[in-house]
Here is the input.
Amino acid sequence: MAIIEINNISKRYRNADTNAVEDVSFSLEKGEILALVGESGSGKTTLLRLIAGLEHPDSGIIQLGGEVIVSGRKSLPANKRKTGMVFQDYALFPHLTIFENVAFGLKGLNKKEVEQRVHDTINLTGLKEDVKKYPHQLSGGQQQRVALARALAPRPELLLMDEPFSNLDTILRDQVREEVRQIIKAMGITAILVTHDTKDAFSTADKIAVMLNGKLLQIDTPDALYNDP
Ligand code: ADP
Ligand code: ADP
Here is the structure.
C-alpha cells in the first residue's frame, strides 16, 4: 500500500499567471526516499509545502497513510497531519535547549514518555552529549541533526526536507547525507527531500522526481534516470 498518494494537485499563487504546481501525481511506498529535483522556481518547495499543509492547493487529492488529507479546497490543518518537516535554515528555537527543541512537537504524552521519546530520537541522531546546549552552541551539521530529530520525534508517517544539506560545506555534506540516509532507513520512514544538487539526489534517494514549470516530468529510480538522462 502506498504511504503517500498524490493525485492531480495544482496550485496557483494569488496574482500569479501560471500554476506553481501543475497537475502533479505520484505515490510512494513505505520506506522509500524520494528526491524532488528541478531548476529554481520549478515548484519543488511549493509541492512540499502543499503536502505539509503549509500551502493549500486549488485542486487535487492527497492521501497519507490511507487517510485523505487534501481533497480539492478541503484540507486537514498542518498540525493534524502525520508529517515532519526539516527546513533549509533548520528553524530551531534559539531560546530552547536541544532537549526542548526535540520535545517541542510531542503531544499527548506524559513527562516520562516525552523523556523516553526524546532520548531515543537523540541517541539515534548522535546528539547525546548536547541535550542541555542551545542551538547556537552547535555546528551546522549538529543543528541539522537536531532539526531532523525534532521532525522524527513525533514518529511521522512522512518526513519532508527542504534543501536539508545546502547550508553545509562539501565535506560535512557527504557525511551528513550518509548519516541522514541511515537514520531514515533505520526508522523505515518514508521521506521526500527537495534538492537542486544532483549528488544529494543520486546518493540519498531511491527515486528521483524531476520538476519543470510546476509539472512533474519524470519519476524513476536513480539507475533508470542515469541511463536515460
Ligand atoms: P522551487 O522550490 O523549485 O524553487 P517554488 O515552489 O519556490 O520553486 O516556486 C514555484 C513558483 O512559484 C515560482 O515561480 C515562484 O516564484 C512562485 N512562488 C513561490 N512562492 C510564492 C509565493 N509565496 N507567492 C507567490 N509566488 C510564489
Ligand atoms: P526556494 O528556491 O528555496 O523555494 P526562494 O528563494 O524561491 O526559495 O523563496 C523564498 C521565499 O520566498 C519562500 O517563502 C517563497 O514562498 C517566497 N517566494 C518565492 N517566490 C515568490 C514570489 N514570486 N512572490 C512571493 N513570494 C515568493
